[in-house]
Amino acid sequence: MRERPPGPEAADGFFDRFVHPWLARAGALGFGLWLVAFGLATGGLAARGTANRIAVQLFFYSGVIGTLGILVLGACTVVLAGFFLRRELV
């Protein structure tokens, strides 16, 4: 028989198994934005030879969305560091 995964008994989904489900969702959002940015950059590389205007737009949106993803991941890191420092110093 398989063991039950750790987490609260009333866990409804994957993210509810984490100590801070909202932080796990935010981290997944940041990672997803980052992956979308890589996809747009790949599309920009593919369109570079034939449609320069589209390629430039894809690279621009890739940079904007990638920056947002990194900012979300950075905010998650700051929150986790705050939790750690609060636990260790208090």
Helix content: over 70%
Low-pLDDT segments, ≥5 res: none
CA distance, first residue to last residue = 41 Å
Q: What overall form do the CA principal axes indicate?
A: elongated
Count of helical stretches: 2
Order of helices and strands: HH
Query: Roughly what is the average pLDDT, rounded to an integer?
Result: 86
Estimate what percentage of residues fall within beta strands.
Answer: under 5%
Major β-sheet annotation: none
Oligomer: single chain
Structural classification: mainly alpha
Please state the CA-atom Rg, rounded to the nearest Å.
19 Å
By DSSP, the count of extended strands is: 0
Q: Could you please describe the fold and organization of this structure?
A:
The chain is mostly helical and 90 residues long. It is 72% helix and 0% strand. It has 2 helices and no strands. Helix 1 runs antiparallel to helix 2 (52-89). The longest helix has 38 residues, at 52-89. The protein starts with 20 loop residues before the first helix and ends with a helix.
Fill in the keyword field for this structure:
single chain, 90 residues, elongated
